[in-house]
Amino acid sequence: MSISLYQASVPVFKKMLVNLKAILAKAEAHATAKKIEPSALLTARLYPDMFALPRQVQIASDSAKGACARLAGQEPPKFEDNETTFAELGERLDKTIAFLDTLQAAQIDGQEDRDIVLTPGGRTMQFKGLPFLLNWALPNFYFHVMTAYAILRHNGVEIGKMDYLGSMQ
Q1: Alpha-carbon span 112 to 130, nearest angstrom
Q2: In the chain, where are the structural domains located?
Q3: In 3-state terms, what secondary structure has residue 115?
């Protein structure tokens, strides 16, 4: 049995974005229950030179929509990166999932050799579709989802591995 490029991308990103949204909801509930100002969690970071929680969520969103759009030969939708509340971050994840829902397997399957060029920080990076997904897009996405999780866990939000992994269906 083989796995398609679509199966390895869109459903994987969607599942983790759903999990991240649930984690953010738990963080907001935690802040309410413990009478913690939500901004204490929203401005938290793991280390001074790392991005705070909202930026981690924004980059995870950008990674998912950017990877799938590029694999489908589309320009990724642009979001403003102006979220400052848990609700706004949840809405961003919803918009990202809604975009992913517009993509069809026929747009992505067979694009393993598609040329993909990124210019992060002005540095040109060239990929073929499959190595782009497996060696750049997914690891980068997981890094930012896990960092968001770690920021919240480090700050006392009662989340665990199963919150990160989500349901096994």
Answers
A1: 4
A2: 10-159
A3: strand
